[in-house]
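Translate structure to sequence.
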């Protein structure tokens, strides 16, 4: 065996960090995968408390004030409200009346799926401009 002699003026030997980083990344990946499989199978069984002011029967029945105003948009771009075709001014009156009665009420737009989204977005903007602050688009 032959040993190399270190010279007095030689530099300190360098440590190659690449293999150590590979091992650390492998261990880290292993722990991430294991932790994802362990947390994904936990099921928490929680029973929420009921309100004291209302019984369970009152919580199950939707009140008249909480029903959303449903606006339809047919395939031929007609606005439908309560199964009748209406124009924008009639819709604006209904939206304002609904908003006055139900400040936290929600308006749901049900549009035909064959319509281009630009027409649907235009009606959503029009309803928002009428004073509605909670407008949703219904999807299946």
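Result:
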């Amino acid at each position: 065996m032959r040993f190399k002699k270190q010279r007095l003026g030689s530099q300190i030997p360098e440590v190659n960090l690449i293999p150590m980083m590979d091992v650390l990344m492998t261990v880290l990946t292993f722990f991430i995968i294991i932790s994802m499989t362990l947390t994904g199978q936990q099921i928490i069984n929680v029973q929420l408390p009921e309100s004291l002011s209302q019984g369970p029967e009152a919580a199950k029945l939707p009140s008249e004030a909480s029903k959303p105003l449903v606006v339809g948009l047919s395939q031929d771009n007609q606005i439908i409200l309560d199964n009748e075709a209406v124009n924008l001014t009639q819709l604006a009156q209904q939206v304002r009346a609904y908003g006055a009665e139900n400040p936290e009420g929600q308006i749901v737009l049900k549009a035909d799926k064959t319509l281009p989204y630009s027409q649907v977005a235009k009606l959503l903007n029009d309803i928002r401009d009428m004073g509605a602050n909670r407008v949703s688009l219904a999807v299946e």
